[in-house]
Design a protein that fits this description.
The protein contains two helices and five strands, in the order ββββαβα. By secondary structure, the protein is an alpha+beta fold.
Length: 110
Amino acid sequence: FGDGASPLDHILESMSGSSGYGVNEQDDMNLTAVDKDGGYLGHLSYSLFRGEVHIKMTETSPDHRRKGIATALFRELRRTNPKAKIFPGMETEEGHAFLGSLPSGSFVSK
């Protein structure tokens, strides 16, 4: 973070729910990007199921788009789940462009 170009100060991780048992357990997780005052910049929500990450939604505050927030969230997702296959959810035009900007092999295509 801290490159001067982005207002991002840190990313918070939280669990929004868990269901199932054993091999069928699913954890619903959120990564939230905040500025130095704790203000909301964006979030990435995903499910972790059988070692796979399924992205449900990525959103950046309109005032902070094109400043690396979504990229930082995705990098944190990869850092916290280094061996997991990552599957993108449904894509908007903006989402498709964002995923296309990530390094090859960052996620499993549909």
